[in-house]
Every structure is written in C-alpha cells, then in structure tokens.
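Researcher: We're teaching a course module on how sequence relates to structure. For the next exercise, students receive a sequence and then see the predicted structure as tokens, so they can try to spot secondary structure elements on their own. Here is the exercise chain.
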Amino acid sequence: MLIVLVICTIGTLLNSYTFAQGIDQHEHDRVARSFGHYPPTSTEYDEVALPISKGYVDGKVAYFIATDASNNETANSIFENTGWRVNFAPILSQIPRAELSQGFEFLNGIQGQGAFGFQLPVSSSTTDEENYSPLVHLNLVRWNDNVTISILKSTPEIISASQKGDLQIIPTNITINSPAVSWFRFEP
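Model: And here is the predicted structure for the students to work with:
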C-alpha cells in the first residue's frame, strides 16, 4: 500500500466546513481568517471527516491528508489504505520538478507507520517556508545492505545518508497533493 506525505495549505470552500484532527468551529474560523478566508455567514455547515497521515518535516511530526495523485495506482492505494477517495489527476505529473516539494517514503529499514510498514515519510518543506509547494514529488528510499539504519526525520539527513552510500533515493514520476492539517509536534 502506498500512502505518501504531501502538504498544502488549509483553505475553506464556500458553505463547507472542514474538520481535521478535532478542530472546532472557533479554531476553524481563526485559521480561515489567517489565510484570508472567511467562514460562510450561514450557521449551518457540512462536515467532512478526512483520514490523517503523519510524517516528518525538519525533524518534527506534521499531519497531512491526501487529495490528488498523478498516478492512478497511487490514488487507489491511498484509498485502499485510508478509505478516502483520492482523485486521479494525471496533469499533476506535468508540473516541473523545480516547482515541487520533495517527499520521501521508505521501502525498508526500521519498522513503523509508513506506507510500506517502515518509518514515517519525510517532506522537504512546510507552509511557512519560502520554497514550500503543496505538490510533492514522491521519492522512494531504500537502505543498502550492511549499513547502520536509523530513523531519518529531515531531507538533509536523507541526502547525507545517500551521499555516504547508506541508502538509495529512487525518484518516481508521481506527484501528490494534500493539505497540511496540523504541524509541528516534537516526538522522540
């Protein structure tokens, strides 16, 4: 199964209300105003419950939801794992890589909550960084044999381990879009 770490901004759609990780109406309205969005004037809201995935960004845990994938197999895999229908959006694969954040999903290593049963995925940026993109280019990570394996929590750590020959970064042609719903929580 493939669940991928992807980030994008929180937004509100007219006459909709997004609940993510227990956000109540007051908190939702505060966040919406901070992004220049205002809640609808109606007191009635539609509720949507979305499955949340977590991963590392700059050494901290962040939470994400997947909405679109450029690869139909990936979209279906996310659906099978989360029960949330991810849109197949092949046009995402046409966006130049320079415009994308980088996401890293581990194919082996230390067991954990990642899509393949190993450590959490890693993303290269968050919404408060200048190089942030809500669209993420998926890279697979495979540890080499006979190396000391550790939990990597940032893009620089992954690149350093690759340069030392400890692991391989395998680029894909997959781009995924997903709102960040909460960030940063420190975890040991």
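Model: If you want an answer key for the exercise: Confidence is low (pLDDT under 50) at residues 1-24, 35-39. The longest helix spans residues 72-82.
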